[in-house]
Amino acid sequence: MKASQYLIPTTKDDPQDAVVASHKLMMRAGLVRKSGAGLYHYLPLGLKILKKIESIIREEMDSSGALEFQLPILTPSDLWKESGRWDKMGKEMFRLKDRHDNENCLGPTHEESFCSLMKPMLRSYKDLPINVYQIHTKFRDEIRPRFGVIRSREFTMKDAYSFHLDDASLEETYQLMRQTYRKIFQRMGLTTIPVQADSGNMGGSASEEFMVVSPIGEETLMLCDACGYNGNIEKTPLVINSEKDAENGTYSQGVEVSTPNAKSIEDVAKLLNVDTHDCIKALALVVDGIPNIVFIPGDRELNEAKFKNATSANESRPMGNAELEKYNLIAGFIGADQTFHKDIRVWKDASLSHSKKYVTGYNKVDFHIQDYVGGDKWSDMETADLVMTRRGDACPNCGKPMDEEKGIEVGHIFQLGKKYAESFDIKVLDDKGKPQVLTMGCYGIGVNRCMATVIEQCNDDKGIYWPISIAPFEICMVSIAKAPEDIARIEGIYNSLKSKGFDILWDNRDMGPGFKFKDAELIGYPIRLTLGKGFLEKGEISIMNRKSGEEILHDFKDEESLSQVISGIRERLYEELKQ
Ligand code: ATP
Ligand code: MG
Q1: Is 155 close to ligand 1, i.e. is its CB under 6 Å away?
Q2: Cα distance from N-terminal residue to C-terminal residue, the chain
Q3: Residue 462's closest CA among 12, 150, 4?
């Protein structure tokens, strides 16, 4: 491709609304342009990268035996009513009516569509297992689209769904997808870690997210160096030291203490000269319309995902003032010893000790109770692991202290179980001729998010350095020549490299060398050839590695030897991805 006939709309300045490196660089390098909130146009350079990522995913999915489909983006509400998700999905699901007043949505995911499509085609156990996928547009009306294409409203997802007669077969495909994902991410130069993930209300059993460790990640990962346990914080259990946190103890009502102006747990702890861990934090929440009080240690945060699992809730929110008043609760002073309205569900985090002395609220403004011991009085409360773990907590697998990192989720694999097969009544005849409900898995990868995440991992002060496998062009040839005969000679070399199959962009634009070099560095082609003064005077071609900055000076003799040198470099760059 000749740059003079291409579109390379690079810009010098960072866009105003961009806060992360990938968003800034994608805009500056002319890969995308913003169309609206969470909506992006892909320009030729950006689209080329996206297509290369899609090709890697397609090749690996195909070689795993999965079959590619393409389904409509617009999906009728009937399908979603059948699974019960029409009412559950909330505002992320973009709903719209057609001219006949039929309700539809833009598919945020396609379990329902694939289930209804596959059902009549699956008749016998001989049709199983089968793994079906597409690489197609999804729409989610995200409340806060941000970080450019990392969280956009319209995006491309590879979504796959597998159908099985039994759990063993599901497990086999799940493991195959796990390996396939590793290959996919490795081929695109992304370092990912699979972490144990929360299955939420999807009803499944096993679930892993493929995470890229990054300070801009919205997920928190708990990692254990010692044994290799990796978990999303939403899922990671808090290990309780049973000796210290014994479940039996003798109740003691403690003593009333005045805590004027102490607004937070920290204030109370400071005033009474105790640790926040020795205080009980109370949270008043409304869960699917039902009032709940949750007691957790003062130095911990509530883990929403664990709480939702414990309560089988869809939605949970803090209690409003009217509700607090209705239930005779005083915000900031709710205590573990008070008697609650009969409608309230009372919860206690499993790590609160029945035998330990705590500070708790007194249901009276500016007063707390000190030296309170729950003892057997706490046995009425519902108990569950409800809190966030943190750096230093014991690994649930080996007990060694865990590390904590931020991560970006690029892929997700999931054992769905029978939930959808039951809703859609998908059955096949087993080998004895008996109808059996199927079990399913689903497997997603965010294509655009992968592209941005690679940039998060592969950038420096000059711009992007693409892994060769997904670079917009593998080679950029920068020429600095004015005389027509020189340009003709360089064009001959370009044509020869192109005919040998190299993915090459010739920057033949009528611009200065500084400008062209800056563009090449910003866009991040892995190999840069420079045919400038050195070439015109001595036949010297500079071959530069964008990532390492290494430069080789090649004495040009003929196209064949030049192409061999470039092939060698290209192969090495592909080899690097395998390490
Ligand atoms: P998140 O927690 O980030 O919202 P999710 O868990 O809802 O993602 P899945 O339903 O598991 O996402 O979708 C599969 C993949 O699609 C994700 O791993 C991610 O790479 C990608 N993805 C999800 N939402 C978006 C989005 N708004 N923009 C870009 N990619 C997305
Ligand atoms: Mg997910």
Answers
A1: yes
A2: 31
A3: 12
* Ligand 1 site, residue 152, Cβ cutoff 6 A: yes
Which residues have C-beta under 5 Å from ligand 2, the single-atom ion? Answer: 412
Atom of ligand 1 nearest to the CA of 209: 18
DSSP notation for 350-418: TTS-TTS-EEEE-SSTTEEEEEEB-GGGGGGSEEE--B---TTPBPTTT-SBPEEEEEEEEEEEEEEET
Place of tokens 């010893």: 337
Whole-angstrom distance, CA of residue 444 vs CA of residue 158? 6
Tell me the per-residue pLDDT of 350-362, one tens digit each, with 9 for 90 and over.
999 999 999 999 9
Q: Report the alpha-carbon angle 247-251-252, nearest 5.
A: 135
Domains and CATH numbers, the chain: 42-236+403-456 (3.30.930.10), 255-384 (3.90.960.10), 465-576 (3.40.50.800)
Contact predicate 516/529, CB 8 Å: no
- Residue 187: count of CB within 10 angstroms of its CB: 21
Ligand 1 contacts CB of residue 393 (under 6 A): no
- The CA distance from 533 to 513, in Å, is 11
Position of tokens 């660089």?
A: 25
Q: How far is the CA of 411 from the centre of ligand 2 (A)?
A: 7
Q: What backbone phi and psi angles, to 5 degrees, belong to 193?
A: -125, 130
Dist CA 194 CA 332 (whole Å): 39
Q: How far apart are CA 472 and CA 293, in angstroms?
A: 54
Give per-residue pLDDT as tens, 448-506.
999 999 999 999 999 999 999 999 999 999 999 999 999 999 999 999 999 999 999 99
553 three-class SS = strand
Express each pLDDT in 157-183 by its tens digit.
Answer: 999 999 999 999 999 999 999 999 999
pLDDT at 243 over 80: no
* Closest by Cα among 309, 307, 294, 298 to 340: 294
Report whether 358 contacts 280 (CB < 8 A): yes
The predicted model scores a pTM of 0.92
Return the percent helix, strand and coil in the chain, to nearest 5: 30, 30, 40
Mutate to test the pocket of ligand 1, among 92, 157, 451 (most ligand atoms within 8 A of CB): 157
Strand partners, 207: 414
